[in-house]
């Protein structure tokens, strides 16, 4: 499995398609995705700040997933934040997610944060179960465009 930094020009269509599909899986539609160009600009800016945190996942020369990670300030503490864990449908539930999570936790450790957070749709039962199995705990419910759960895990 290879984790390679997103190249905006080369990977634009892939990252947009993956992100939109993540909305469909989480919320039933990609309606809340917003403007494609704004998303691409956000990713370009994050790649400049955290190149090893914005990666496509390749396996046997096929792009099978995407990870978006960054470091944010939350309640006056720097934390890791997962904006996106994405695997193509045919690769879900087969152990690849464990490798993505391992990559993310190593990224956060390398950036010297002791905790990371992510948001998940409470209706995405498979994702919630996966995160709980890996030690993430629900901190609180949040409402932006959708109701989500903020989950967190402390790193050793």
Account of the protein in words:
This is N-acetyltransferase domain-containing protein. Residues 1-156 form the N-acetyltransferase domain. The chain contains four helices and seven strands; from the N terminus they run βααβββαβαββ. It has a single domain (2-154), classed as Gcn5-related N-acetyltransferase (GNAT) (Aminopeptidase, 3-Layer(aba) Sandwich), CATH 3.40.630.30. By secondary structure, the protein is of the alpha+beta class. Helix 1 (8-27) crosses helix 2 (36-49). The chain is globular, with a radius of gyration of 15 Å. Helices cover 37% and strands 35% of the residues.
Outline of the structure:
The protein is of the alpha+beta class and 156 residues long.
Summary keywords:
single chain, 156 residues, alpha+beta, Aminopeptidase, seven-stranded mixed β-sheet, 37% helix, globular, transferase, acyltransferase
């Amino acid at each position: 499995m290879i984790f390679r930094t997103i190249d905006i020009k080369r990977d634009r269509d892939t990252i947009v398609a993956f992100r939109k599909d993540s909305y469909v899986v989480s919320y039933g539609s990609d309606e809340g995705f917003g403007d494609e160009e704004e998303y691409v600009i956000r990713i370009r800016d994050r790649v400049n700040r955290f190149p090893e945190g914005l990666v496509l996942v390749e396996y046997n020369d096929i792009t099978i997933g995407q990870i978006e990670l960054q470091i944010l300030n939350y309640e006056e503490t720097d934390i890791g934040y997962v904006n996106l864990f994405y695997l193509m449908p045919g690769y879900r539930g087969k152990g690849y997610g464990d490798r993505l999570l391992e990559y993310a936790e190593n990224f956060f450790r390398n950036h010297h944060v002791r905790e990371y957070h992510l948001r998940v749709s409470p209706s995405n039962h498979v994702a919630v179960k996966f995160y709980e199995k890996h030690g993430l705990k629900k901190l609180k419910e949040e409402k932006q465009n959708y109701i989500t759960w903020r989950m967190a895990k402390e790193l050793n």
